[in-house]
Amino acid sequence: MMKPDIEFEQRARARQMQLTKPPGALGRLEDIACWFAARQRREIPLALVPAITVFAGDHGVTAEGVSAFPSAVTGEMVKNFARGGAAINVLARTIDARLTVVDAGVHDCVDDVPGIVHGKVRAGTANLAREAAMTRDEAQRAIALGRAQARADIAAGASLLIAGDMGIGNTTASACLICLLADADAEAVVGNGTGIDAAGRARKIDVVRRALTRVAHRQWQDGSDCLAELGGLEIGAMAGYYLEAAAAGVPALLDGFISTASALVAQKIEPAVTDWLIASHLSFENGHRIALQKLGLSPLIDLQMRLGEGSGAAVAVPILQAALRLHAEMATFAEAGVSEKHD
């Protein structure tokens, strides 16, 4: 796996010290520019070319009553994505990002929907509260699907990858993975998902605890095993997407709760993947902060979003672009003829 080049980060920091502003005056925007300098191997990083891929899959755990919406909504939303009517469609257009939708495991048939990448591993997962969500082979195929899509996005010219999710029930699977991989309690991690009430949240906490009890004595070989027992097909594809981005030396911008659960799976498979991840926002969903802390990442913004789809990441892209333009286009003290600070 490629490593960021610290020499270019140091060069970028030296340039920041010469720009016409007090040192550190632009706060984290300066750090962002230097972070990308190390990964693009350029003192002055190029503007980002974002690509968004939304991975969709259904979850058998919805049989436990953990969601406010029926499973059919997953397939219906895939069709909405294809028509351009979802939030992520609007945001992709706003930031001029290529948007792809991938069927990783939608239960309903969407084969006749134009513009969808058909990579269905299986028609939804099993009920993780009672049995493994999928086999290890299926988990690895989901990861491979995400890797293939990352390669396609990079080949099309993307220099920043964003993975989004769609899957009714996937906050339950993600909560299970975050509890397992960040060693956290279900009470602290489980939120209200798509809008369940207090009774629904209590039921969801119970489901997560039952799932974790079911695998309590399991010996984990790697992140693929964790994914197979407690994850989702779209979650696995997103993990593969991050792994391939890191392998290719292309940064990935994380979204919210499901995104970070996927990143934790990727981290379990390859710890160095986190060198290529940047966190976009802090989700309103419980447990997102816990997952980010385990990944060692700090979110850029907090707008109390919890939609998924890659929406929080898309909203943060202009901040990244602004950081890079400031770094590239501001005059130095010498260029502007401005006196520098006294020693």
Any key phrases for this structure?
6 strands, 343 residues, alpha/beta, Rossmann fold
The CATH homologous superfamily of the largest domain corresponds to Nicotinate-nucleotide-dimethylbenzimidazole phosphoribosyltransferase (CobT), large domain
> Low-confidence parts, pLDDT < 50 over ≥5 residues?
none
Q: What is the architecture of the largest domain at the second tier of CATH?
A: 3-Layer(aba) Sandwich
Query: Which strand order do you get reading across the main beta sheet?
Result: 3-2-1-4-5-6
Mean pLDDT: 96
Order of helices and strands: HHEHHEEHEHHHHHEHEHHH
- Structural class computed from helices and strand pairing: alpha/beta
Structural domain count = 2
Strand elements, count: 6
Number of helices: 14
Helix content: 40-55%
Q: Indicate the CATH topology of the largest domain.
A: Rossmann fold
- How would you describe the shape? globular
CATH hierarchy, class of the largest domain: Alpha Beta
Between the first and last Cα atoms, what is the distance in angstroms?
Answer: 42 Å
Tell me about the largest β-sheet. Answer: 6 strands, parallel
